[in-house]
Amino acid sequence: MSVIAARAFVGIAAITLLAAVAWLVLVGAGPHPHLAAVTAPALIALLSATALLVAVPLFSRFVDASIERDALVVRSVLRPRRVLALEDIAEVVVIESLLLPARSATSVQRLVVRMRAGGVMAVTVRDAGLGARLRARDVVVSVDSEPLAPGQAARRYPGASSAWERILDVMMWAAVIVPVIVVIWLLVSR
Fold first, then answer.
1. In this structure, are residues 62 and 1 in contact, taking their beta carbons and an 8 Å threshold?
2. Residue 135 CB-density burial (10 A; 0-12 exposed, 13-18 middle, 19+ buried)
3. Cα–Cα distance, 1 to 64 (Å, whole number)
4. Most Cβ neighbours (<10 Å): which of 9, 101, 110, 137?
5. pLDDT of residue 97
6. Residue 91 and residue 156: Cα distance in Å, rounded?
7. pLDDT class of 37 with cuts at 50, 70, 90
8. Nearest-angstrom CA–CA distance, 155 and 159
């Protein structure tokens, strides 16, 4: 998915949520709102709010990055465009396989950009050859080809994964372990 498509998704979900809430307020403002009249806007508001809650953490690290002249230009879904001069970049670590929690096995390439001034920026780029083009521009690039979970990547390379990704990684295990504990508890208590 491109940055433009992700922005369109977030924008449409936000507009739909606002429209559904406005509709709900108008329908529910009468003296005796009918349940059938309130159901549709409430359902639309719930679905669009769920879409926003799921999309915002997932899209927060997705970017389009390119090299323009002597700068790395990063276009993010939720943040304004950033321009990083290549001479200000101390090192780029390319994590070839960051294992993100999903229904199927999903891995992405993550670039961890360390600035000479001390800042760190981690981006998931669609262009797999960006690391090689940065190396060709005399930027120090190291590659980690070992598959890493978000927690492992954050320990090895601070700033490589967001708190959302690490929480989702733990929640995937909790989604399996908690029901097993509940079933065992129910079987033992009977």
1. yes
2. middle
3. 10
4. 110
5. 84
6. 15
7. confident
8. 9
Structure tokens at 23: 């509709």
Question: HSE (CB half, 13 Å, CA atoms) of 52?
Answer: 15
Give residue 172's pLDDT: 66
Burial (CB count within 10 angstroms: exposed 0-12, middle 13-18, buried 19+), residue 107: middle
Say whether pTM exceeds 0.85.
no
- At 154, which helix (H) or strand (E)? helix 150-156
The per-residue DSSP string of 74-123 comes to: EEESSS--EEEEGGGEEEEEEEEEEEE--SS-EEEEEEEEEETTS-EEEE
Per-residue pLDDT band at 169 (split at 50, 70, 90): low
SS3 content of the chain, % helix, strand, coil (to 5): 50, 25, 25
